[in-house]
Write a structure and sequence with these properties.
The chain is an alpha+beta fold and 397 residues long. The chain has 13 helices and 13 strands.
Length: 397
């Protein structure tokens, strides 16, 4: 037997991209079809772009999903007057005015690059004498603008700066200057200035030193949505105050967590409450929402509600059976303890005062303030230990 043939390995030419950047571009490219195939339904009413995310195959979260960010930016190119964005699923996830403006600024820059300034036109990429360079430039720019900019604007900005540095290095040679100077001055540098004028890139500057391709940690710093389950009439800020320090925490009604934060630069402390209804699984949310809709259509008879003192008890009895029946019909297995938990929540939002009941159940709260403008101003409370505090609850109109 002869010696086994040596396996020949071809040496690859360095691409100039690090491993992280190549993986990021591969992921962005693979997910292109997901965004393109999605049918997006939305409505614009009273300055709010409400996007139906119930049948999405992606996570309805701008900060966690690049595909979701791309969808929202596409919507904002159509809904130019939107001041807020709501992603409607089992919960309503709402992004306020400042967060919506960050996204809208990228939508405007994207439109300006493609349509107004036409920075991707072949005549701007370089003179005819440099025609060999133009196809690669066009391909790279097209991917940057059409894909990356909508899904990862900060990544697109960092990548653009890398492209500028590379073009400046190659254009530093006298013979190559005529091929790179027009490309730099007519395309790359104007695009960089355009992105630097957006609210998104301005807000991201303090975090640029920690940015990594494919990592969305920076977006989680910039985007802090408020969440409202569809059966509630109050929005809830799920993320505690930035830079806040916990100075007290306790429980009320057994399973509701309360944390008091002191935030630098703020006069009032933050009263951060986490009701049990915000910690439910998607299956339990679905059961609650279905039960609430059924109850709204089949209200108890007036005779059953003749005694106000017994109204809550009547609703609890109805809700226990309703939750159990609804769960069975939906194929959701619930223990008796879980049925009781959901019945309490449902009673709170049918026979009670909703999430305000939890504030009223806190013995340390002396006053509750709900001020105008409704839908914008959070609920304030007066605490026996920490005086006036701002809560993480915002009533809807």
């Amino acid at each position: 037997m002869g010696k086994p043939a040596r396996e020949k390995t071809a040496k690859k030419k360095p691409s100039g991209k690090n491993h992280q950047e190549k993986n990021w571009e591969k992921i962005i490219g693979c997910r292109k079809s997901v965004v393109e195939k999605m049918a997006v339904d939305f409505e614009l009413e009273s300055g709010t772009a409400r996007i139906d995310a119930r049948n999405w195959a992606i996570e309805p979260s701008i900060e966690n999903s690049e595909a979701c960010m791309a969808v929202v930016i596409d919507v904002l190119q159509q809904a130019k007057s939107a001041e807020r964005v709501v992603l409607a699923e089992a919960r309503d996830v709402e992004y306020d005015f400042d967060q919506t403006q960050m996204l809208a600024s990228i939508a405007r820059a994207h439109d300006r690059i493609l349509n107004k300034d036409r920075l991707l036109s072949l005549e701007k990429l370089g003179p005819k004498e440099c025609s060999k360079l133009l196809p690669a430039r066009f391909k790279e720019l097209q991917f940057l603008v059409l894909e990356i900019l909508r899904k990862d604007p900060i990544g697109a900005y960092v990548k653009l700066k890398m492209m500028i540095n590379k073009a400046q290095q190659l254009g530093g040679k006298t013979k190559m200057r005529q091929c790179f100077d027009p490309y730099l001055n007519d395309v790359l540098l104007p695009m960089k200035r355009m992105l630097e004028e957006t609210e998104m890139i301005k807000a991201a500057q303090p975090y640029m030193h920690s940015f990594k391709f494919g990592d969305r940690s920076v977006y989680r710093e910039l985007f802090k949505p408020v969440v409202r389950p569809t059966f509630m009439l109050t929005r809830y800020m799920i993320v505690p105050p930035r830079q806040g320090k916990i100075i007290d925490k306790y429980k009320i009604t057994g399973n509701t967590n309360v944390e008091i934060y002191r935030v630098p630069g703020q006069v009032r402390n933050s009263y951060f409450i986490t009701p049990p209804e915000f910690r439910l699984s998607e299956e339990k949310y679905a059961v609650l929402d279905a039960a609430r809709k059924y109850l709204a259509e089949h209200r108890p008879a007036e005779a059953e509600l003749a005694e106000p003192d017994r109204t809550r008890e009547i609703f609890m009895n109805i809700n226990r059976d309703l939750i159990a029946d609804t769960a069975r019909s939906m194929g959701v297995e619930l223990a008796d303890r879980e049925v009781e938990e959901l019945a309490v929540v449902l009673s709170r939002y049918t026979a009670g005062f909703g999430v305000l009941e939890l504030l009223l159940a806190d013995d340390k709260i002396q006053d509750v303030y709900i001020n105008s403008p409704i839908g914008v101003t959070p609920v304030y409370i007066y605490h026996s230990d920490f005086e006036e505090c701002i809560t993480n609850l915002i009533p809807t109109r």
